Each structure stands twice: as C-alpha cells, then as structure tokens.
Prior knowledge:
Blueprint: E1 16-20, H1 26-35, E2 40-43, E3 50-53, H2 58-71, E4 77-83, E5 86-93, E6 96-99, H3 103-106, H4 112-119, H5 124-130, E7 135-137, H6 142-160
Antiparallel strand pairs: 1-3, 1-4, 2-3, 2-7, 4-5, 5-6
Helix pairs in contact: 1-6
Amino acid sequence: MTAEQGRSVPDATGEVAVVMTPIPRARFVAALCGLHKVRGTVLETSGGPIVVLDDASEDAAVQSVRALSGFLKGAPFLLALARDGQVQMQEWRGGSLTGRPAPGIALADSPGVVTTLLSGTQSIDQVAETHRDKIHSTSMSRFAAYRALLKETKQLKKESGA
C-alpha cells in the first residue's frame, strides 16, 4: 500500500518507530493521534494499541510521544526506535522522558508483532494485509479527532458503568 491509500510507507533507511500506549482502545489512540497531528498507523494488538509512526526519525518520534504522553499525565508510554538492527527504548510520562529501559526487559511481554515490526521482518503494510480489521488511520482533521475522542470517552464510561 502507499501513503496515498492511508498507510505508512516503510522507511527507506530501515528505521522504525513504535509508540506503545497504556490506552486500551485503538480508536481512542487513533483520535488522540489525529488531534495532535501524529501521523502513523494504529494497530490493535493483544497487549493494547501501538502506533507505528510514519516519520521514524528520532526528532519526529520524540515530538510524537511527547504530545501523546502529555495528554495522559501519569500513564507510561514507551517509544521503541529501531536503527541498524538495534532497538532503543524510552519511557515517557506527562510529556517528559522519564527513563531508558533495557529493550529486552521492556519488550519481554510485548506482543510478537512489535518485535516483528522492530526487527524489520515485516512492515506495517504487510501486517495490515492480514489484519485489516485491526488497523486504524490517524489521518483526520482535528475536528473529526475531537468528535471521535468524545465518542470513545462516552463509550468507555458506558462500558465501565460510570
């Protein structure tokens, strides 16, 4: 798939940036990304939604995770950066870098698809081909993102009985 079709194009340098979130709903994550202009693809996994960023450069990835983690002040967000076969991890809370956990420890309980993406075994486009119902685009206007966040928040409250 191409970027024009709404999917991220694999980075020509082999760089991959993945944000792992504590948010349980992929549509909420996609809307949050849309609101903050974070471009990428949200994938529902057994461990929760992840965001595979369109721009895997370190500066762009840091800017994206800073915006997302700033929305939920106390919850941890993990940023995984794959470069030349090496993975670096960063933990973010409240828009600030709080640590650099060892990749092996940070990824020990992560879904296999995260390792597959970070190792370059498969691109997000290849994963999307077999998991179309688990993929969500972050491309939306801020107004559409805000409406989606309201809808998802309402659904979360309804499901929790609040």
